[in-house]
Design goal:
Elements lengths: L20 H6 L1 H8 L16 H11 L13 H4 L12 H4 L35
Amino acid sequence: SSLFGLNVKIFSRDTEYFPGGWQFHQRKDFMKRLIQGETDSYIFHMSWTENKDNKLLFLRQLGQWFVEERCVGKNADEILGGGEIQEGASLVEPCCATEALISCHYPDKPCVHSCQGKGENIDKHGRSFW
């Protein structure tokens, strides 16, 4: 029991409903099915990944990145032009892409398009995902 009487439930890392970095890095078969739309996944969490820079690159390559570059690493004040932010001001229009922002970085990691010949393998003995 937790401090406030809440019960904590933990999903198995093997669940296809909430896949993450473990599947991305370890389960090539699952990732191919995910990319082809053959799983019942709800959301993808890029856990089990060394740093934020790689998380962003992996999500872009996977076709799961929708944040415009001009908004990455910036606060609302920087995005909306400084000064006092008006009530109701939205970050949706300047920051949210309507389609995934896809780019290739590592041919040995899961990708929605073949990244073969684009970039260097990130794993020591990595082979092309496709």
